[in-house]
Amino acid sequence: MRMQIITINLPEKYLEAIQILNDLKIYPSRSEAIRNALKMFLTDELKMDKELEGDYFKMLANSRINQRK
Question: Could you list the residue range(s) of the whole structural domain that residue 42 is in?
Fold first, then answer.
């Protein structure tokens, strides 16, 4: 999977909690912890675990874009 760099702003307490997970070696990096959290969020909110990379996701994204017009 191709990765892209993004910039986000987090409350300090979130960053501290993520750093603790990293320090405890629960996650190998802060980025991995954030990726995992985002994956769980998307799976829960969009019910699309494996479909995230398929045609279903493209259809859903296009549908959401068309709803905003």
Answer: 12-68
